[in-house]
Amino acid sequence: MKKIAVNTVKAFLKEHKREDAYTQTFTMGDSSFEVAFHTALTVSEKTTFINRVISGCFDSTGKFRPEYVSPMLRATIMQMCTNLPPLTLKNETDDEGAAALDLNGMNELYLALNLDAVQNEGYQAMLGEMVALCTQAIDWKKGCTLSGNTTENALRDLIVALTTKVDSLNVSDLMQFAGDLSVATKGLDEGGILQGLLKLHEGKKE
């Protein structure tokens, strides 16, 4: 099968390139201002977008904060997809020393401008895609956190049960085994973890 020339493909892409910009005018009393919108994001920009949203939806311990999902989505849309300036909190900084984002203010601005209803097909398609991708990423991280906690709790309960019933087990060795297993047994139930621990213990005795 004969390959199509690269120049032919590039020419085709150039001719069918999607518009990446849209401008909408908003009125404010007797004056008005224009907001420029991106209507498409690159793969790397999508990654940055998702990471920003995720970073605000979970605290430092990995606990999910559902009340942050919509505000983080809206703030990230305005930061990455419009020319609107970020609103910041006075005399407050984030973990990196930059001015802390006024999440409530950004959320109110988004709603006041009604950016969900921007009349542009490309923008709406991008918005729908990013909401779906962020939802998938949040569900994935919630699942990972739950799996990690389940495994950790199962190991702890198992150690207590085994050391209570079997006097010959060395607690220090068992804790070492549990540490080794905590990485390798992500998602296993108690039965799977028990089998792994017992095999490691038998190997240690040999």
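The above is record 1. Record 2 follows with the same two-line structure.
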Amino acid sequence: MLSPLLVSVGCVDTPAAANVRAWLSAGTTMLPPEALDDKVIFSSEMSTIRGASAYSAAATRWDADAAALLKPYRTSVSRLVPLDGQRVAVRWRAAWDPASLAWAPPLARLLGWEIERFDLDPEVVSNFRWMAIFELFAAALRTRVLRLPAASVEGRAVYCLEEGRCVAHEESLDLVRTADSGRLRNRRAAENIAEFLDVARRPDGSEPEEWAAAVRARVLSGVPGAGALHLEPSEDPSEGVFALGCFALVAACAVRLSAGVIGGEATTEAFGEGGDPDPRVAVCEEIGARRSVDFSQCVSDLF
């Protein structure tokens, strides 16, 4: 759902801005059928759609696909600014939880941690470091907050109205512009915009393979680690020996502590006979494993 729409301080509201605000309150950055002129044109960096029926069909499919595949898909509007009597600019954001981090919510619930999402810097190369994994969990144990990257896309839309109906909808996506300028260097940020374009902006009638190839060429090409045969940059592998041992120690302490708290027996053997079910089983079942002996494999699969 969209957050409450904001008009920038100092801007005079207009009938066009009021109309756009009402139309977007339905929870999408695409306009509803009643807002469209028959000859409306939607244009973005990668596609153009002409006509109200084609616009509505694409908007319906994009919203449905995003809700089904980018879970939990959520949108928000940070600014709504009248440019003149007929044009309205909107800054919006779409976000979802990365599928690769699906293990995080059940683990956080088990340990009583909060999850805090942060945005990636698209201009910084993603470097894998074993020590970062240890630092991540060490900080979470200390603060009870697990900080994880968000999957998000931000953009700008300009709606042009005539006689109370939208005749033009121009959209630009920040990360596409960043890629066009050669400044998109973060692999995960590049994959986020590629996923969004593939799921929520593929035009009707386009072949999925051709569209995917166009997306790769536009936003993934040249990004370190983003190619099919590219390896993500990493640091000295010897760092992994120490960090992996530290991570195992941190994880063991966290699980043992949570077992005592959950079972109400913090002073007894955490995984002894009797008492409440082994909390390791809960973690494994949430992630997909079925037996507590698979716990070590669950941990190894987290990353």
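Confidence is low (pLDDT under 50) at residues 1-5, 238-244, 259-275, 278-303.
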